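User: Sequence for Acyl-CoA synthetase below. Tokens please.
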Amino acid sequence: MLLASLNPAAVAAGADLSDAVRIDGTSLSRSDLVGAATSVAERIGGASLVAILAKPSATTVLAVAGCLIAGVPFVPVPADVGAAERRHMLTDSGAQGWLGERPADDDLDGLPHVPVRIHARSWHRYGEPPPDATAMVMYTSGTTGLPKGVVLSRRAVAADIDALAAAWQWTAEDTLVHGLPLFHVHGLVLGLLGSLRIGNRFVHTGRPSPAAYAEAAGSLYFGVPTVWTRVVGEPDAARALSSARLLVSGSAALPVPVFDGLVRLTGHAPVERYGATESLITVSTRFDGERRPGWVGLPLDGVSTRLVGEDGGEVPHDGETIGRLEVRTPTMFDGYLNRPDATADAMTPDGFYRTGDVSVIDAGGMHRIVGRESVDLIKSGGYRVGAGEIETVLLGHQGVAEVAVVGVPDDDLGQRIVAFVVGDAEPQVLIDFVADQLSAHKRPREVRIVDALPRNAMGKVVKKELMT
Ligand code: MCA
Ligand code: AMP
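Assistant: Structure tokens for Acyl-CoA synthetase:
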């Protein structure tokens, strides 16, 4: 069973937990989860796919669990989604219903709204869908164009959680704490579904501030590097985490000074892990293994990795030679929805995913991520954002003649989204324009109006010159 801790027979027989999930001021026991989520399942039965506005709330937890119980694939829609991005997700995925809160503009693009009632109960018993059934479609940005729907099977999700549980000695005794969004792999698949599979207590802190992490008294904490950077910046909050068992960082590179700061203040060397929406998490340092600052660890059980050089051949694993990282894993996605062309580009004929990351591997199999191949895929606060998607929106504004969007190094966010614009629009107007159309977290932090963009002899914008 994918959500093993929500086995109705076991829960009915007494395997309950009064505070299995704590989120947004609400506590849900396992029997609350089974009863209310099954009641959601009853209302969506027969749908081919539904959308869920993935705010961090009990409603979202029940909507997600209900879909997984019913075997109805879902699209988690970003909590701060804008109109154009939402329309694309709904049209491309063919969603037949909308679960959870209504969007801020109350526009459901014609979809029926399916309410999620926290106090409703159904004790109908559903059979477990087959492992190759789709669990969810998660939209993610590429370098250009609109976000693509990553199709994730139940098998891939279960395999990833189990491999991470083995690597981190994660058990039902843990209390897992995080404050990350529930519309990406990190917060949703690992954090929430991991907890519902393993059977540990799950606490969502709301905004992942150092104080909220300190107060939560967990044993296992997840964060993106920005969260850990802020924790280290508040030493008292950081010291409160010394009673935890394990701190885990992922979604972007953890700066070495932040790793060292966590060791100094909490007494814990963080475990770092690496992955992508398409492959799920594939490489991690282990609870009982070496935790080397700046390195992301070893392939998880069942995962193979390789480095490919300029000539297409494999490069040695000597800890120094850089290559393009490719991974083959039982946790692989089933392709991009409606985009066989993009799927074919992302995969090698022998089943490896081309990560787009550049890496080294040492003789012991430890991986260090050196950077990304393309400057057009930005990681800001752990969010993956395509420069092309933002550029397309900005070019749709009448005050913009030319634009180049880049990720500029940032101590807090890793990269900060900056748009260089040739035109006569007000910077704040353009920032708001992007936030209205796309998810708000994709809006540039800064818009710089310039006379011209740097171009090479071919007329192509030289983004590297804008990134310092
Ligand atoms: C933000 N603000 C802005 C702008 N951006 N104001 C004006 N213009 C802007 N461009 C505002 C915010 O609304 C907020 O306002 C205030 O500035 C602070 O924002 P920020 O610094 O962004 O802090 P934050 O809102 O607290 O966000 C930082 C964060 C967030 C919590 C770390 O970036 C985050 O949740 N990241 C997680 C992403 C993630 O889960 N990625 C996983 C992808 P106000 O204070 O008024 O509200 S899955 C993945 O990568 C794989 C598989 C993996 O490996 O895990
Ligand atoms: P996403 O699909 O949002 O999960 O983004 C995947 C990308 O995040 C990867 O291809 C990497 O570029 C980056 N990433 C994830 N984890 C790490 C990490 N621990 N260190 C460096 N980059 C990471």
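The two ends are 49 Å apart (CA to CA).
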